[in-house]
Design brief:
This protein is of the alpha+beta class. The chain contains twelve helices and ten strands. The protein starts with a helix and ends with a helix. Bound molecules: phenylalanine. Residues 169, 171, 210, 249, 252, 282-284, 305-307 line the site of phenylalanine (PHE). Keywords: Aminoacyl-tRNA synthetase, ATP-binding, Cytoplasm, Ligase, Magnesium, Metal-binding, Nucleotide-binding, Protein biosynthesis.
Length: 341
């Protein structure tokens, strides 16, 4: 019995086979358990004679089981280490990398061009009060222009009844700048703006870059030169065929929209040719009421201001046909139009 058992244990191939042998020998109805149980019925003499032999048998089988189990475990670990070894010479899996959003890319380009012309960057909050977004900018109270902007209003403050807005343009930054800085002023204000609008060329959130220059003797010639120079640099051409078409904004007088001559019939943008004009920005001379509202004497200082849609200029420059996917966060679209950091 002993020899057979020890042999069988020694040649068991798996931990499960070792366990089967243990049960067969030492389990409840195992062969050795049977012998151990039989000792109870023996006479004291017989027990003294056979007891050590049976106990010895049990001990040797137990240690054989433990030894084989250890061997098998070590072999298993060995096999795993061999199978799972790390090959440090393999190339890494490519990692997906983010890229600069076209809007932000274009915003950076604009900031760089204006910085080169001596403009500083100013900022204001996305959540504005009525004063900065409308009143100080010469929107008359209850004027339909406030509705014209398709304004998002926040819930009124329960104590004061004040209704804040999501700024409908970056022009409130003009006001904030004039309230806190003495002329001469030369700033641009890039940022997010909000209007209740949604179609192929409008999204409820979009981006503008505002510009403001205040100094003595500023006139439309400065405005025209600044914007024409900017647009030419932005589109990387020597000069642009532009026209300033009379328009109305409450905060500028006179006001104009700037159009550039272009041909977009072939899908790609061709500047300075064809007979269609495209509107690219609003501008004008800062209204004397706005200067006064901000504590600047219009008899001493004059200025011009402009505002342009960053996303729309990004579409134009990079031939993006629809504005809405700009903000869908679809990584395939972003990878197609994204710019490396
Ligand atoms: N705030 C105007 C708009 O959003 C643009 C503008 C800015 C016009 C400054 C004139 C001067 O339409």
């Amino acid at each position: 019995l002993e020899l057979d058992l020890i042999n069988a244990i020694g040649s068991a191939e798996t931990a499960a086979a070792v366990e089967d042998l243990r049960v067969a020998a030492l389990g409840k109805s195992g062969s050795i358990s049977g012998l151990l149980k039989g000792m109870g019925a023996m006479s004291p003499d017989e027990r003294r004679e056979k007891g050590p032999m049976i106990n010895g048998l049990r001990d040797r089988v137990q240690s054989a089981l433990a030894a084989r189990k250890g061997e098998l475990e070590a072999a298993e670990l060995d096999a795993r280490l061999k199978a799972e070894h790390v090959d440090l010479t393999l190339p890494p899996r490519p990692r997906r990398q983010g890229s600069v959003h076209p809007t932000m890319q274009v915003m950076d380009e604009m900031i760089a061009i204006f910085a080169d012309m001596g403009f500083a960057v100013a900022e204001g909050p996305d959540v504005e009060d009525d004063f900065h977004n409308f009143t100080a900018l010469n929107f008359p109270p209850k004027h339909p222009a406030r509705e014209m902007h398709d304004t998002f209003f926040l819930k009124p403050d329960p104590e004061t009844g004040e209704r804040k807005v999501l700024r409908t343009h970056t022009s409130p930054v003009q006001v904030r700048t004039m309230q806190t800085q003495k002329p001469p002023i030369r700033i641009i204000a890039p940022g997010r703006t909000f209007r209740k609008d949604s179609d192929a060329t409008h999204t409820p959130m979009f981006h503008q870059v505002e510009g403001l220059v205040i100094d003595k003797g500023i006139h439309m010639g400065h405005l025209k030169w600044t914007l024409e120079t900017f647009v030419a640099r932005f589109f990387e051409v020597d000069g642009v065929d532009a026209r300033f078409r009379p328009h109305h904004f409450p905060f500028t007088e006179p006001s104009a929209e700037m159009d550039i001559r272009c041909d977009r019939s072939g899908g790609e943008l061709k500047l300075n040719t064809g007979d269609s004009w495209m509107e690219i920005l609003g501008c004008g001379m800062v209204h004397p009421n706005v200067l006064r509202n901000c504590g600047i004497d219009p008899d001493e200082y004059q200025g011009f201001a402009f505002g342009m849609g960053v996303d729309r200029l990004a579409m134009l420059k990079y031939g993006i046909p629809d504005l809405r996917p700009m903000f869908d966060a679809d990584t395939r679209w972003l990878a197609h139009y994204g710019f490396s950091a």
